[in-house]
Amino acid sequence: MAPSSAETSPKRERRKEARPGELVKAALDLFVEKGFAATRVDEVAARAGVSKGTLFLYFESKEDLFKAVIRDNIANLFPAWNEEFKTFGGSSAEMLHYAMDLWWLNVGNTPASGIVKLVISEAQNFPEIAAFYQKEVVEPGTGLLQSILQRGVERGEFQHMDTSKSVFSIIAPMIFLMMWKHSMGACAASANIIDPKEFIHMHVDLLLNGMSAKKTQ
């Protein structure tokens, strides 16, 4: 006896609600594997187990799908991070270490790290995507880190600096790590040369303490 529509409806509804997330996951994997230009929407649909027509019910274009990948995997993290740092009780140095760890845990050490390499490599050919990434990721990311630096300056923990420029000294090594992960780091001969967490903390310590030897009195 065939199941009634009432019996199958909840299951179908759950499946329908899951489809956007499944499509975004499939798109992330394929974009990172093949690049934005080389990825076809029918490939994304097939990997998610739906038809191309179903994909277009949720996303108007491949560009719209890629924006959803950026939003779901990176941009949506910032509101919670901003709230968390408002009540951070440690020093500004500890706050900076913690912020770098958060980024690596939630982005750098996940498939989403491939988005960074992808945007950098294809920004010139797809300026709309680059502009979206700038607005949704770069601006809130630099804003958060700049607020940590400014906190340190105002508390007398850091020396006076132009935080709008100094912030890129913090961002640069994170970009390097993600680029390395999806290039040389993917090769067996180079995979274990850099320990990401060790590299992050070493870099933060260099920024905080400088490289000059302390003179003894």
Automatic annotation (TrEMBL):
GO terms for MF: DNA-binding transcription factor activity; transcription cis-regulatory region binding
InterPro entries registered for this protein in UniProt: Homeodomain-like_sf (IPR009057), HTH-type_TetR-like_transc_reg (IPR050109), HTH_TetR (IPR001647), Tet_transcr_reg_TetR-rel_C_sf (IPR036271), TetR_C (IPR011075)
Annotated HTH tetR-type domain residues: 17-77
A Pfam family: TetR_C_11
PROSITE patterns found in the cross-reference section: HTH_TETR_2 (PS50977)
DNA-binding region: 40-59
Entry-linked Gene3D superfamilies: Homeodomain-like (1.10.10.60), Tetracycline Repressor, domain 2 (1.10.357.10)
Keywords: DNA-binding, Transcription, Transcription regulation
Organism in which the protein naturally occurs: Limnohabitans curvus
Record protein name field: TetR family transcriptional regulator
Superkingdom of origin organism: Bacteria
